[in-house]
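User: I'm curious whether this sequence folds into something compact or stays loose and floppy. Could you predict its structure so I can see for myself?
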Amino acid sequence: MSARKELEERIARLDSLIAERADGHRGLGLRLALGFALELHKELPPGAETGALVEMWQSTYPEEWVEEAISQAGVLMSNPGKMALELEARLKEKGLIEPEVAQAPSE
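Assistant: Here's the prediction. I'll summarize afterward.
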């Protein structure tokens, strides 16, 4: 399967989750970042497709959710490692993953 096709399938799955879940708005930043990536694959200028998406969100979601999504997408595109660390911290804070336990060095 091509990278572009795989990306399109991931976007479709994420769109479904966003639409179905009560907390789906939490996936908007990732959705926007994936949309930017798809635009790059299609050799479209940034915002060619995602601009309409953000416009739709502005009429659907509170402004702070849209602003947060734009911010998250920017971090994902410029520094994905930082976003991974932020997500990990949030999951630990909510108790969804266990904090790492320091282990004594093996001898």
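Summary: Residues 3-20 form the longest helix (18 residues). The helical segments are 3-20, 28-41, 50-60, 63-78, 80-93.
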